[in-house]
Amino acid sequence: MMRTNNLKPQKKKKEKNLPLPKGRFGKATQEVLSGGVLEKERTFRMFPFLLFLSFLAFIYITNDFTLESKIREISKIQKDVKELRYEYISVKSNLITISKQSQLAKRLEKLGIKENKEPLKVIKIKVNE
User: Fold this and answer.
1) How many distinct structural domains can be found in the chain?
2) pLDDT of 39-58, one tens digit each?
């Protein structure tokens, strides 16, 4: 003899009777925490709007992250420009110092070239027409 499968009657879970919160905030908090908000039809009608709000939040966060990275990049470039400006001023002052006539004379003297102490003579040629 074969037995047939029979469904056992399900026992209903006893819901704990929580004390009802007083006030509007307490009721709203209980609705959210118990999941009752998701069961309402109004929530399903508002789903596209909630999706739109989450999209805007994503765009806002992405924009903020991009802005912060750009600000870091700009500050780094400003620091580099400042350092290069200091280097430019330093190299320029060294060049001016080195290119002075007295400095050139000292450097050329080491090579055996001396500065001419006599004034230059100008040769003028008159052309008769």
Assistant:
1) 1
2) 777 777 888 888 999 999 99
